[in-house]
From TrEMBL:
Family: Belongs to the cytochrome P450 family.
UniProt organism field: Manduca sexta (Tobacco hawkmoth)
Protein name: unspecific monooxygenase
Location (main, coarse): endoplasmic reticulum
Subcellular location: Endoplasmic reticulum membrane; Microsome membrane
Length: 412
């Protein structure tokens, strides 16, 4: 009898909890969709019946007259902001209230993910942002261009060899695989100081580990579901996003590389060197009295938030976390962007021909030299890459605790 009573009580409590959770927006007069229990509005995405970007586009267009609409990621309420003025307030005027990303993984359980820039909060985020911002200025990117060119030439040589070995004068290429391997080798060189040839040595350890770390299969999706819906339980169970061998590989790679460079006084203008400067407190902001004429569309202007001088020591796990973030953030995004770009120039042969001609003219003008300055001279290349932006993946940055701020906006 007691078992029946407890069962009924628990079921009733669960129903009341879910009802209150999934009526948050409607209770405040905000348009929302029809979430399912526990899974919210993520059913089609979780079952891979709909891409996340397509879901966001569908929801965005569902209520064209609304400034923002509500949606639920599992049991977490999320706002989809449509109003440009409100977006300006969030990202500029009232940015101080929106510094934090939603943290899914506890730093004590998995410091390699929990201590990266996207996971840090408050003052720690400000300090790390200020510490790392000098790493992404035009002068630093300029020093890394030769590494990218080297990887490109390496890829071309590997493709030429495969064409020759085919005996038929051509090969079929999976463009996504091609761009993924190129991105892998670029990040390996620019971030970790490694020379990797993933086109020739297709199963090298760095590519294999990187693929595992950045590929979110069904098991990873279940973990994210649990992290998003039951963070306290996941913390108690000490569930990590990455397996132990992946964590060991990247932590060991960063630490041994830094130790080797320290012992042998090796200086290479890459991410590892930047992290070593961070550790020593030697990475500083560039003081510019005039605009950098060499700065292109891919570089950033440091904000006031990122210009504060920071005097604090960072632990090794903090540095490893930033290196791994650099890899994860660059691995899939760069390869996807390049794949979309290849698709666009393939279906638009006139664009392809004009771009090809500009590249050849630029090569002839610069004596075959392909560097940072020659890239800045290619105006049409800039236009093509910027035009590809219509394919950009959806970015999400609001956390659920910020909803109250936006609810007040509805009243204004």
């Amino acid at each position: 009898m007691f078992l029946v009573i407890w069962t009924v009580a628990l079921v009733a409590a669960a129903v009341l909890y879910l009802k209150r959770t999934y009526t948050l927006f409607s209770r405040h007069g905000v348009k929302q969709f029809s979430p399912l229990p526990v899974i919210g509005d993520m059913a089609k995405v979780t079952l891979k019946m709909e891409h996340f970007a397509d879901q966001i586009a569908r929801m965005y267009n569902a209520y064209p007259e609304e400034r923002f609409v509500g949606r639920y990621e599992f049991t977490n309420p999320m706002l989809l902001v449509r109003d440009t003025e409100l977006l300006k307030k969030i990202t500029v005027k009232d940015f101080e209230h929106f510094l934090d990303h939603r943290v899914l993984i506890d730093e004590k359980v998995d410091p390699m993910f929990g201590r990266n820039l996207f996971s840090l909060k408050g003052q720690e985020w400000k300090d790390m942002r200020s510490t790392l911002s000098p790493a992404f200025t035009s002068s630093k990117i300029k020093l890394m261009i030769p590494f990218m060119v080297e990887v490109g030439e390496q890829m071309i040589q590997a493709l030429k060899k495969k064409v020759t070995d085919s005996k038929v004068g051509y090969i079929d290429v999976d463009c996504k695989d091609l761009t993924t391997r190129y991105a892998n080798d670029v990040v390996a060189s620019c971030a970790f100081g490694l020379k990797v040839d993933s086109m020739t040595h297709e199963k090298n350890d760095f590519y294999a580990m990187g693929k595992r770390a950045s590929t979110f299969n069904f098991r990873q999706m279940l973990k994210f579901f649990a992290f998003a819906s039951f963070p306290k339980i996941m913390k108690v169970l000490k569930v990590s996003l990455f397996t132990d061998d992946i964590k060991y590989f990247f932590r060991n790679l960063v630490k041994t590389t830094m130790d080797d460079r320290e012992a042998n006084n090796i200086i290479r203008p890459d991410m590892i060197n930047i992290l070593m400067e961070v550790k020593k407190g030697k990475l500083s902001h560039e003081e510019k009295s005039t605009k950098d004429v060499d700065a292109g569309f891919a570089t950033v202007e440091e904000s006031v938030v990122g210009k504060k001088e920071v005097n604090r020591e960072w632990a090794d796990d903090d540095l490893v976390a930033q290196a791994v973030l650099f890899f994860i953030a660059g691995f899939e995004t760069v390869s996807s962007a390049m794949s979309f770009l290849l698709h666009e120039i393939a279906v638009n042969p006139d664009v392809q021909e004009r771009l090809y001609q500009e590249i050849m003219d630029n090569e002839a003008k610069n004596g075959g030299k392909f560097d940072y300055n020659s890239i800045q001279q290619m105006v049409y290349l800039d236009m093509v890459v910027s035009g590809k932006g219509s394919w950009s993946l959806v970015c999400q940055f609001l956390k659920s605790t910020e909803i109250n701020f936006l609810m007040e906006e509805r009243k204004q």
